[in-house]
Amino acid sequence: MPLKLAIVGRPNVGKSTLFNRLAGKKLALVDDQPGVTRDRRFAHGRLGDLDLELIDTAGFEDVTDESLESRMRAQTELAIDEADVALFVFDAREGLTPLDRIFAEMLRRRNKPVVVAANKSEGKQAEIGAAEAHRLGLGDPIPISGEHGEGMADLYAALLAVT
Ligand code: GDP
Ligand code: MG
């Protein structure tokens, strides 16, 4: 049985890039157009010997619009409910934003195993935001780089640890 993994987080943290890497293909569109509305995307993926059923959640760039924020929230909640594990992705170079905290709160309420990924951590950028992210109470953030494929062994170990 594959592990159903929902990749969640605010727009532009690198969810689709990670989805593509784990799927081994260019299945999810990497955001280059602000405001593009998309549904969840599904793909089969692999991490080490772990079979994954991946769920990518789309981004809504303009979250100052309340209806967009509620759509983003609904879509994320669906993905979390479908999944065995939620992978909460944030941008380690930017640290936590108010919108990150909204997603984190959503995850805390839903009672699903969560792994926190500090993405864009290639090089030495991992330290930024890590302590803050720890304080979210969702576990130790795993420094990764979806774009460069770094931290995948630690991500694998973290997924095994919560399942
Ligand atoms: P999403 O909106 O969360 O799905 O984010 P995307 O996957 O579309 O990526 C948003 C932007 O972040 C793109 O410009 C990516 O190239 C960039 N990005 C994604 N992963 C990484 C990473 O590991 N390191 C760096 N430096 N940039 C990344
Ligand atoms: Mg995306």
UniProtKB/TrEMBL annotation:
The protein, known as: GTPase Der
User: What does the protein in this record do?
Assistant: GTPase that plays an essential role in the late steps of ribosome biogenesis.
Instruction: Note the subunit structure.
Output: Associates with the 50S ribosomal subunit.
Q: Which family does it belong to?
A: Belongs to the TRAFAC class TrmE-Era-EngA-EngB-Septin-like GTPase superfamily. EngA (Der) GTPase family.
Q: Residues in domain EngA-type G?
A: 3-163
Q: Which organism is it from?
A: Caulobacter radicis
Residues binding GTP 1: 9-16, 56-60, 119-122
